[in-house]
């Protein structure tokens, strides 16, 4: 027993107190802030489950009941719905901050798995209030899977638990939505373990001990984030949500303008700009994966050219940064186009940006092969 206690204390000491970290700015706090958002989502989610009813006839009214009748129900519901947005904000800034880092491939892949799991959790959570956007969003996205050749229809029916989005769909999405955050928590532990194994990215930096430099820095960032969070929840709680989701889901009325939550807009922009359903699905997932793997590609070039003169490496780094900036710019444009009307010139512009995005990717690939 004593041995176990000593062992666990030494692990805590090695990874949370004495752990050597480079001296970096506040932008590096978004990783731990994302972890904090996960904790907030789990705590508020468990409180919501106590009053939520996962049934198509009751889900919408149970959320209204939480908002109007349950003591402080509005508070934890608004913390949960705005929490998803804050979570994505932190995750995007965290990805952006690490775009140019030469981190290990496995670390990037665990980041990709985390991001996909967070996306799935948020998508399923958005279905639960069973408003118009919940229902039609679920219908559009699950129907995309039906377009996969051969197995598509089976996958779609498995997701629906029947032949269309209905009560079994809501039930299974509720179940997955409850379970996924705990899988995300396990993936976070894996992600952090890989980060602590991979110290190569900090080689040239000056080190300080984790406690108290990182601890105080992240605590300060945490209070700043809580101020933004409180502003949203207390002064503008519905700013980021769509008014149509306050209308109960109806199979016979389609919303005038179907849009996902802001954090999915760039991918929705890609999807909408592709005329073919299956092609759209592939390009949408391609864009998500590309966000992570493009850097792995650059890393490989960096590693392979270790012997080349420093000046060449510098120009590689610059190329890599320019490509990162281009990718960020493309995603930002797609973000605005994804939220705009389905009309000229937005649709054409979105097609052009989607094409550019993928052309750039292949251009890099070809350049890499030429260099080999
Ligand atoms: C990764 C963590 C999570 C994310 C990103 C997330 C996201 C969301 C989103 C976007 C909604 C829709 C909010 C709305 O517009 O009303 C939602 C609803 C809900 N979530 Fe989560 N959630 C997470 C974790 C959890 C957990 C762990 C639970 C339960 C233990 C939970 C339970 C619920 C319930 C019951 C609802 C329906 C009530 C409502 O709409 O407010 N969530 N979630």
UniProtKB/TrEMBL annotation:
<feature type="transmembrane region" description="Helical">
    <location>
        <begin position="107"/>
        <end position="128"/>
    </location>
</feature>
<dbReference type="Pfam" id="PF00033">
    <property type="entry name" value="Cytochrome_B"/>
</dbReference>
<dbReference type="InterPro" id="IPR048259">
    <property type="entry name" value="Cytochrome_b_N_euk/bac"/>
</dbReference>
<dbReference type="GO" id="GO:0006122">
    <property type="term" value="P:mitochondrial electron transport, ubiquinol to cytochrome c"/>
</dbReference>
<feature type="domain" description="Cytochrome b/b6 N-terminal region profile">
    <location>
        <begin position="1"/>
        <end position="204"/>
    </location>
</feature>
<comment type="similarity">
    <text>Belongs to the cytochrome b family.</text>
</comment>
<dbReference type="InterPro" id="IPR036150">
    <property type="entry name" value="Cyt_b/b6_C_sf"/>
</dbReference>
<dbReference type="InterPro" id="IPR016174">
    <property type="entry name" value="Di-haem_cyt_TM"/>
</dbReference>
<feature type="transmembrane region" description="Helical">
    <location>
        <begin position="134"/>
        <end position="152"/>
    </location>
</feature>
<keyword id="KW-0408">Iron</keyword>
<keyword id="KW-0496">Mitochondrion</keyword>
<dbReference type="GO" id="GO:0046872">
    <property type="term" value="F:metal ion binding"/>
</dbReference>
<keyword id="KW-0679">Respiratory chain</keyword>
<feature type="transmembrane region" description="Helical">
    <location>
        <begin position="173"/>
        <end position="192"/>
    </location>
</feature>
<comment type="function">
    <text>Component of the ubiquinol-cytochrome c reductase complex (complex III or cytochrome b-c1 complex) that is part of the mitochondrial respiratory chain. The b-c1 complex mediates electron transfer from ubiquinol to cytochrome c. Contributes to the generation of a proton gradient across the mitochondrial membrane that is then used for ATP synthesis.</text>
</comment>
<keyword id="KW-0560">Oxidoreductase</keyword>
<feature type="transmembrane region" description="Helical">
    <location>
        <begin position="33"/>
        <end position="54"/>
    </location>
</feature>
<dbReference type="GO" id="GO:0008121">
    <property type="term" value="F:quinol-cytochrome-c reductase activity"/>
</dbReference>
<dbReference type="InterPro" id="IPR005797">
    <property type="entry name" value="Cyt_b/b6_N"/>
</dbReference>
<dbReference type="InterPro" id="IPR027387">
    <property type="entry name" value="Cytb/b6-like_sf"/>
</dbReference>
<dbReference type="Pfam" id="PF00032">
    <property type="entry name" value="Cytochrom_B_C"/>
</dbReference>
<feature type="domain" description="Cytochrome b/b6 C-terminal region profile">
    <location>
        <begin position="200"/>
        <end position="372"/>
    </location>
</feature>
<keyword id="KW-0999">Mitochondrion inner membrane</keyword>
<feature type="transmembrane region" description="Helical">
    <location>
        <begin position="212"/>
        <end position="234"/>
    </location>
</feature>
<keyword id="KW-0813">Transport</keyword>
<keyword id="KW-0812">Transmembrane</keyword>
<protein>
    <recommendedName>
        <fullName>Cytochrome b</fullName>
    </recommendedName>
</protein>
<keyword id="KW-0349">Heme</keyword>
<dbReference type="InterPro" id="IPR005798">
    <property type="entry name" value="Cyt_b/b6_C"/>
</dbReference>
<keyword id="KW-0249">Electron transport</keyword>
<feature type="transmembrane region" description="Helical">
    <location>
        <begin position="74"/>
        <end position="95"/>
    </location>
</feature>
<dbReference type="GO" id="GO:0016491">
    <property type="term" value="F:oxidoreductase activity"/>
</dbReference>
<keyword id="KW-1133">Transmembrane helix</keyword>
<keyword id="KW-0472">Membrane</keyword>
<dbReference type="GO" id="GO:0005743">
    <property type="term" value="C:mitochondrial inner membrane"/>
</dbReference>
<keyword id="KW-0479">Metal-binding</keyword>
């Amino acid at each position: 027993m004593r041995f176990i206690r000593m062992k666990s204390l030494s692990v805590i000491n090695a990874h949370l107190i004495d752990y050597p970290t480079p001296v970096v700015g506040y932008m590096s706090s978004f990783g731990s802030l994302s972890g904090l958002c996960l904790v907030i989502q789990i705590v508020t989610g468990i409180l919501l489950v106590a009053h939520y009813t996962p049934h198509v006839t009751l889900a919408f009214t149970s959320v209204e009941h939480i908002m109007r009748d349950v003591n402080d129900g509005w508070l934890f519901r608004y913390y949960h719905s705005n929490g998803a947005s804050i979570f994505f904000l932190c995750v995007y800034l965290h990805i952006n901050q690490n775009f140019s880092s030469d981190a290990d491939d496995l670390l990037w892949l665990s980041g990709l798995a985390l991001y996909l799991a967070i996306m799935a959790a948020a998508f399923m959570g958005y279905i639960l209030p069973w408003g118009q956007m919940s229902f039609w969003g679920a219908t559009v996205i699950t129907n995309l899977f039906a377009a996969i050749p051969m197995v598509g229809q089976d996958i779609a029916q498995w997701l629906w638990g029947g032949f269309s989005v209905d009560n079994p769909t809501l039930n299974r999405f509720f179940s997955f939505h409850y379970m996924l955050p705990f899988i995300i928590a396990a993936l976070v532990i894996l992600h952090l373990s890989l980060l602590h194994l991979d110290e190569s990215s900090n080689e040239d930096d000056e080190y300080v001990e984790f406690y108290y430099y990182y601890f105080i820095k992240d605590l300060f960032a945490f209070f700043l984030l809580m101020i933004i969070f409180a502003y949203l929840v207390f002064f503008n709680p519905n700013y980021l949500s769509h008014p149509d989701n306050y209308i109960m889901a109806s199979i016979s009325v389609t919303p005038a303008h179907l849009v996902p939550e802001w954090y999915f807009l760039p991918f929705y922009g890609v999807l909408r700009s592709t005329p073919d359903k299956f092609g759209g699905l592939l390009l949408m997932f391609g864009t998500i994966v590309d966000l992570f793997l493009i850097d792995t590609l650059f890393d490989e070039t960096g590693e392979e050219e270790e012997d080349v003169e420093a000046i060449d490496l510098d120009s590689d780094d610059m190329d890599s940064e320019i490509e990162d900036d281009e990718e960020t710019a493309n995603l930002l444009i797609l973000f605005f186009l994804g939220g705009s009307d389905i009309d000229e010139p937005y649709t054409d512009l979105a097609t052009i940006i989607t094409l550019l995005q993928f052309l750039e990717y292949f251009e890099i690939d070809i350049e890499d092969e030429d260099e080999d």
